[in-house]
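INTERNAL TRANSFER SHEET
From: sequence group
To: structure group
Subject: F-box domain-containing protein

Please process the attached sequence and return the structure record in the designated field. Keep the field labels unchanged so the import script can parse them.
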Amino acid sequence: MPIPFLPPEITDRIIDHLWDDPAVLYSCSLVARSWAASSRYHLFSTLRIVSRRPFDGLVKLARRRAPHIVPLFHLVHELQVYDVTAKKKPYARIVPHVFAAHMPNLRTLRFYQADWRQVTPMQATFPMFLAQFTSVTQLELDGCICANLKDFQRVICAFPMLEHLFVRGDDPFTLPPNPQHNLAALTPPPRSVQRPRLVSLGLWFRTHWHKEHTLVWEWLLDTPSKDTLHSVCVYAPGTEWHPPYGQMLQAVGPSLLRLDTPLLLDGEHCTLSSNTNLRELVINMANSQSWPVAWSAFTRLASQITSHHLRRLTFNLYVCGEQDEPGMRGEADTKRLDELWDNVDWNELNRVIMGDIFSGLEEVCVRLQWALWDGAFQKTAAFRDFKLEIENRIRRLHWHDRGILSITHGPPINEVYDFDFKQYKNRGKSTFHQFR
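Return from structure group:
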């Protein structure tokens, strides 16, 4: 009896759905020769180094230069380096020295919790080895710290093809107690501090705004990024950062095509009047306790938009508090929020959005994100009725009559954080160790 045969169009699609399960992908690669290529592509397209032990193992593999290992390094398109568990023996600073020459097709490089403030002779050459990642176009720094602004600039300028920069954390760099003990004292300054030609920029700050963040913006605006930046995504609590943020939006001007931003409550310093080519706007509303104020602020912001090219508008509404605030616990909370939504001036908002500026809109998406810390309440009829009531309020917008409004619900925030924690726990060791 002949062995059943599945065409590659089907097997490739099946394997594509298993991209985040290394164990199953490894098994798939051993099923048949026709399955190996797709399985190995997903196995090695993203390489995660989560601790010192797998890092040391990868170093041995790289130095061995075995014929069956070298092609696997060439498959890596994204490298993630987690230095959070390696405080005694940090290895993030050594990664470029070891892997830059082995990953010619690397596109995305991510560093997590890397501390580059302490200087060693090895770290003095760190930016020079970063420059060997000639194919990297996207750099993500999550919780990473440099000694000062000059060191931060040195890291960013090291990548010759960098187009996308994303920085998360409260202190991208700090001023050391002794200015001589930093990377800049051991290496010459970069030949051109104006190297960045960023296409997209993302800045996320978890707690509060620091002066260092303003320095980052001021530096980037002195580079060619001022004319090449098409997409900006910013998140920071509070409003003290609005004045420099408004200056950045004004400086970027017509080159900005996409903006992902918190709701701008400071209408005096933050406007979109200079962004005349804006095509996509994402508004994140997290002030769930004062919806009338939030929608009033959007009405003011919408009245200042001058782009006739706006095609897509997205609202991310975080209902019933942010992560560190009490969430919805019962029917009493639904009644309280229902009263707040009653105070929204829908007539004034519709008057603004019926203008010529919004006539070219093709899609308006409202995504409701619920903070439900009571898992049982979300299964009750009271909660389902409240969700329907909120949807009906949102449908008062003129966009619903035009047929371009869609409303979706994201998973409860407590479920999202549970999922993220599981993802962190299940990262496991590097897939390369299965092919030694």
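Handover comment: The radius of gyration is 25 Å. Residues 119 and 322 are 38 Å apart (CA to CA).
Transfer complete.
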